[in-house]
Design brief:
The complex is a heterodimer. Chain A is built from 3 helices and 4 strands; from the N terminus they run E-H-H-E-E-E-H. Chain A is of the alpha+beta class. Chain A has a single domain, classed as Glutaredoxin, CATH 3.40.30.10. The mean pLDDT of chain A is 93. Chain B is of the alpha/beta class. In chain B, helix 1 crosses helix 4, helix 1 runs parallel beside helix 9 and helix 11 crosses helix 13. The longest helix of chain B is centred in the middle third of the chain and has 19 residues. The model of chain B has no long low-confidence stretch (mean pLDDT 96). The chains are: A alpha+beta, B alpha/beta. Chains A and B meet through helix 1, helix 2 and strand 2 of A and strand 10 of B.
Chain lengths: 81, 473
């Protein structure tokens, strides 16, 4: 089954850099040839605006920023595949 | 600070607020008959001849606030509220001094002016064509034009006078722009409200656990509710029970991108954002309907995106527009937008819950780019389409936009296009003067609103359309 990764693109997360997070994740998925293993999507609110940028991997929620996206991807995505 | 432009709006707001208050508390059914008396207590009339008439009219307003009325039109005449204004056209008043010059007579190309034994002018209405030349040349301004404000407001001539002398709307012609609603000094024309559907939707969501209710806010919000900060308005909307708030301006960014591509491909287009304009093209210029952009409006576009990507969501449009209430009933829009309300109605909802915006924390609203946000004012859509062409390297297509500010200018452009003499390849059609910031559902209308929307546009985090929509891939 594909891993489902969702980035919050609601106002609060957007201001904290969700566009940059999405762009980096897209690049990382492409670099690692994981297009068929990961499904990346967006949502407008996860109800945890204080912890943004919110990213869920399957049903687990993470707090990510443009600076930590790389580390997050290695630790919570690559390691689990 | 005044929340509304006119006392008519304030009265309508009070009715909406009381209806909403009871709806939240599940006490509407048993109290609906008492609402007029709550608003007009005592025995001294303040608006009409007696409190009984005031209350009878208020009962009609309550009906409209609950979504009632006759027929299907969103725009309804409250005939007992209509003051049967004079509609006799050009008339000589007693300011006529019976002068020697008789400029009025010379100016009248139809020979409609004659003089009595006191040398005072009279207009023969069987000859008069209401051109107004006589009034223009009279040195005493003794000739006036008696026209009903509703008929004057309705530039597409959908309002006539019924047998009993009240205003009558031709539902086939009416485009629901709401110009008459805003202009009638007696509040005798009003728009139906769907606030009860919204309150019901919010209550049944059980705090967004059964389904999530999204508020889709139009970019004209940048010009509204200036007594509070925009961030406080967003907090207020969430306090009403909405799960989250999304900018319709992001839908506008999506539209700008798709519409500029469609334009470059087809070579000629009219915009599809303004539902009143779209309906006008379809009803008054059916041969030109083929040129209407195939994009849903920004509201429809963002709502469609949300519903296609999120399960179990309901959407409510909140904006300045009465015509949107008709747009959400169209087959192609119905699946995506569950209800539409105006900023006037939003204010009534806030106050029905005693939400004081100025006391709230500020939340944030930031989804769209500068270009999506300036859709709210005349010219913004054309600017966005030019930007969309540039960003997608379609500059080879030379945009010649005809920006139509108000339905009269739309009519002129469509007429020229129908005769193939329009020197433009894109018609930006906005039924309201100044664009959406001139909409009938706004709380206030003013000179500064355009600057306010531009400022709201500049505050957007994203500076290009492509960046704003990139997160949606």
């Amino acid at each position: 089954m594909k891993m489902k990764m969702t980035v919050c693109i609601g106002s609060s997360c957007h201001i904290k850099g969700s566009r940059q997070v999405v762009e980096q994740l897209q690049a990382l998925i492409a670099e690692n040839n994981l297009g068929d293993k990961i499904e990346l999507g967006g949502t407008f609110c996860m109800g945890r605006c204080q912890q943004g940028v919110c990213v869920t991997v399957d049903d687990e929620v993470f707090s990510v920023s443009p600076e930590t996206t790389h580390a997050f991807f290695e630790k919570n995505v690559l390691a689990k595949l | 600070m005044h929340k509304f432009d006119t006392k008519v709006q304030h009265l309508k707001y009070k009715v909406l607020r009381e209806v909403a208050r009871h709806a939240w508390n599940d006490t509407l059914l048993e109290n609906v008959m008492d609402i007029p008396k709550t608003i007009v207590p005592g025995k001294v009339p303040t608006m009409r001849c007696c409190v009984h008439k005031e209350r009878a009219i208020l009962a009609e307003r309550v009906k409209l606030a609950m979504g009632g009325g006759q027929g299907n039109n969103i725009i309804q005449v409250i005939d007992i509220a209509c003051d049967d204004c004079p509609a006799s056209g050009y008339q000589v008043t007693d300011s006529c001094r019976g002068c020697l010059a008789h400029r009025c007579e010379d100016a009248c190309k139809r020979g409609a002016i004659s003089f009595d034994h006191k040398h005072e002018a009279h207009i023969d209405k069987t000859k008069c064509v209401e051109c107004g030349m006589c009034a223009k040349v009279c040195p005493y301004s003794a000739i006036v034009n008696r026209k009903r404000p509703c008929q004057n407001a309705c530039k597409i001539k959908a309002i006539s006078i019924s047998e009993d002398n009240a205003a009558k709307i031709d539902d086939e012609k009416c485009i629901q722009c709401g110009a008459c609603v805003y202009q009638c000094p007696f509040g005798a024309i009003s728009d139906r409200s769907y606030i009860l559907n919204v309150i019901d939707m919010l209550k049944r969501s059980e705090n967004n656990s059964k389904y999530k209710v999204y508020a889709l806010v139009a970019p004209a919000i940048g010009s509204q509710m200036h007594y509070a900060k925009l961030g406080q308005v967003i907090t207020g909307i969430k306090k009403l029970g909405f799960y989250t708030v999304v900018e319709v301006a992001l839908g506008a960014d999506m539209v700008a991108q798709a519409e500029s591509r469609e334009l470059a491909e087809k070579g000629f287009l009219t915009s599809s954002c303004c539902p009143a304009f779209v309906r006008y093209v379809k009803t008054a210029f059916p041969a030109l309907a083929q040129y209407i952009s195939h994009n849903l409006s920004p509201m429809g576009t963002i709502a469609k995106y949300i519903k296609e990507h999120e399960p179990n969501v309901k959407t409510v449009f909140i904006g300045p527009c009465t015509a949107k209430k008709a747009e959400v009933q169209l087959d192609e829009v119905k699946p995506y937008v569950d209800a539409a309300i105006t900023f006037e109605e939003l204010q009534a909802l806030f106050d029905s819950r005693d939400i004081d915006l100025t006391a709230l924390e500020e939340d944030v609203l930031d989804n769209a780019s500068y270009f999506g946000r300036i859709f709210a004012r005349s010219g913004g859509l054309s600017d966005a389409v030019a930007e969309g062409l540039k960003e997608q390297q379609l500059d080879a297509f030379e945009l010649k936009a005809c920006t139509c500010d108000g339905i009269e200018e739309c009519k002129a452009a469509l007429l020229r296009k129908s005769k193939n003499v329009l020197d433009a390849n894109f018609i930006e059609g906005m039924a309201c003067i100044s664009g959406c910031i001139g909409g009938a559902g706004n709380l206030t209308h003013g000179e500064k609103n355009k600057a306010a929307v531009d400022q709201y546009g500049r505050e957007a985090l994203e500076k290009t359309i492509a960046d704003a929509v990139s997160v949606l891939k």
